[in-house]
Amino acid sequence: MADRGLWSYKEIAAHIRVQPDTVRSYRKHGLLPPPDVTEGGRPFWYPHTIELWVSRRPGNRR
Question: What Pfam family is a match for this entry (predicted)?
């Protein structure tokens, strides 16, 4: 099980207010940063990794 401090597609999606499948698509198209950790083939990111990515995304409104 992933550490509680790591985010899956679900947590990232909630953070940026999209569906988890949208986040999966971002990764498939190289738009998401590489995962910080992979467990059992599942990718996970630290919140600060995603927050930095969000701050640099085109059209960022935060």
Answer: MerR
Q: State residue 33 phi and psi, 5-degree precision.
A: -65, 155
Residues with Cβ < 8 Å from 51, sequence gap 6 or more? 15
Backbone dihedral region for residue 59 (phi beyond 0: left; psi -120 to 50: alpha; all else: beta): left
Q: Per residue in 48-62, pLDDT tens? A: 999 999 999 877 665
Q: Where are the domains of the chain?
A: 9-56
Q: How far is CA 22 from CA 1, 4, 16, 25, 28, in A?
A: 23, 22, 10, 5, 10
Q: Which pTM was predicted?
A: 0.86
